[in-house]
């Protein structure tokens, strides 16, 4: 190997099979050097956050789903999953993560008992193919073997890759697809076959629509810049010829992917994601962002998903991009354009699909840096004095900038190490070229210089990775689960209590309390129906339902999380019969849920609470309210109405024979005095509260304490707006805060995320806190309101709502049971049953609304309607109605037909191109 390495390091040969073999050896050295520590510490690549809740869980469940299909293909693929939140389309939910990733299907080669091993092996395999794709790109660009090997190391082990090995493994895929797309464009621009480009578009469109959007923009930029470098200013007709070829090739690849791309994108367009204000309302980034662009170029840190962490060798490349801009051509032009895009949030927003200005597109920059580094390495013995002098000058200037920035952010070894490595690399280049000018270097000297330079580059990359993972650096390895524990962690979510619940034909769900933050997607693995889901693509109608009722725990990607703030009717309405939680959370059980001793009697820290008032899965209503009237109610009144009837538009369902709801809802507001017992920490002013120290609080003292007895108590903040007390122009003061309300044993908190938390940010102008049921012996009269951050909290109003015990509530639930759909079949493809009514009605279900569910009543197709702000309903005539719901992913058939058209187009293209 050393002989082969020597030949490939100092002779600028074409890339051959030997080059790929050498890359494999160097790759294994880097993998062992970086990740052997995970083996020693018995740590996995599974991040305790999204890795546990999403990436591995979805990988595991999807493999199980495919294996079940192969075991019995006659059952067909399950396109709907009742254990995912309240039920979700599998294509929409999993399409973002695993369905189009070709590496996932290699997991089928592993036995089920080795799924965790498969997860890790496939991550490392992705890394290997990322490097291989770069080598193929270098071969297309006719880069010599030695430089290509160096560039492949820099590309494969750039910080974006190191970060996502443990953070978001599916984020690695665009690093693989981008070189393939560039190869495809190169072939088109050189009048070769367009097949590579079509296949690369097909694969990237299938893999992930989010990154496919970025890849589409990036490859367009690449193609335009590369065209003008190759051809200069030609005629418009010449330019349009290549534009046309690229566009129709792109469209063929996209249409080929339609069987996945169309239904997945269709699901995204109906998801809970909200674009929000363009660029999050930012004209420029915070000052911290701009210095991070300088500070993080060679270190394993990021800000707003601007990920650099290149090898220090890139610092020596910088002056060459200008001094030899004709030679480096499109690399210089592309990097210059990217530098401009990085400066303004508007560009970041455009690159992020017009959402918040996260710069996740920076995965593309390493390709140009690594290609330039490969070219520089190939000319390492041909540098002129002014060139290596310029490198030294850039090194000195950058070192000075880092020293100045460290005066603000503080000293870290990781900031200085790249300067040391860059200095070593420069000394090697300086010495080699000085010696070369005196006397031509011998074969052995070239080998030694080349080998030392490669080793320093690899050590530099390894050090950066270790700084990110290891305890002496950022210690991110501590955020990973111990290897071999993940499956047991899923099964111990409720200490196995869910397995002991009674099994019957009644369709109901399992809930949690507001204190159970750890429960996200585990119901999928436990194969239980619940409410919680934690996915990048969630049903937008369920999100709307949660927002209408103003559940305080709402998040865009977790619409029904944390037990719906322990609200009784909401949990009952959603069919939650049992709540599983730890004993210490008993005080947070919604009113009406009582601990079931017979189900909780075991040596466990968990309890089971049950209610008799959970609503049926589907039931007929004869009382209704229009959406216009419903939305005029406050969130507590909205929740109360759900126990009376159905919300429906007259245009969608015939309400002629229904009864319009016109009863008063018993929601009262109580008078109180808002005071501060510690003016040093907090003060009350007109329409605002001033918090002078962190966690300052005020108190709401109710005028009549007896008014809280035998009631559910809510605290409602309206028109809330926070202005921090300090503003640091250099580091920026976050706008996030937590509001906490306490009454008796209950303490509730709602988090307002920072405006720069683009993925989770929503403006919470209103906050509703459910403080639970106060019995007749309650003497509580003081409600505390605490804010975590110092500043001014403008408030239009604070209302203390009380809801008296409702004597008729159980009777209304019983009526729904009498009018329920008697379910005869319940699968992930079909729900069927019958109901008999003496008058016309609206059947309301807790099936999340989607066009994929089709309905028949007495054998006739009936259009489903949207009811109750987020669910499927059906108009029913009087008499017995045999109802059947069947599911098929929306747009799947359309997508399949388009893929067939794409296949035909690909064949026609092949014939045409051969003739061409």
TrEMBL record:
Superkingdom in the source lineage: Bacteria
UniProt KW keywords: Membrane, Transmembrane, Transmembrane helix
TM region positions: 20-40, 91-110, 117-137, 143-163, 170-190, 196-225, 246-269, 303-323, 335-355, 361-378, 390-409, 415-435, 447-470, 891-913
Pfam families reported in the protein's UniProt record: YfhO (PF09586)
UniProt protein name: Uncharacterized membrane protein YfhO
